[in-house]
Amino acid sequence: MKLVFKSTGQEPTIGQALTDFRGEQATLKSIEKPRHGGSTGRVYVQPFESDWTQGYYPSVFGLEWIEREDQA
Hints:
Layout: E1 2-5, E2 17-19, E3 25-32, E4 42-47, E5 54-56, E6 63-66
Antiparallel strand pairs: 1-6, 2-3, 3-4, 4-5
């Protein structure tokens, strides 16, 4: 599995600026893969001008998990 932007299919990188569905920006700090079939995993971000990290569902930032092409 890999995490990609729904709109472009590109993978996000740690340290990249992300914009959520409200238009607020944050910096991607880490990614947690889904642990089982009913899980969506999490993305951990640091909102701009803050010193804390928060976990969100990937869809908040327009991200989704897809099967890797090299594993098919």
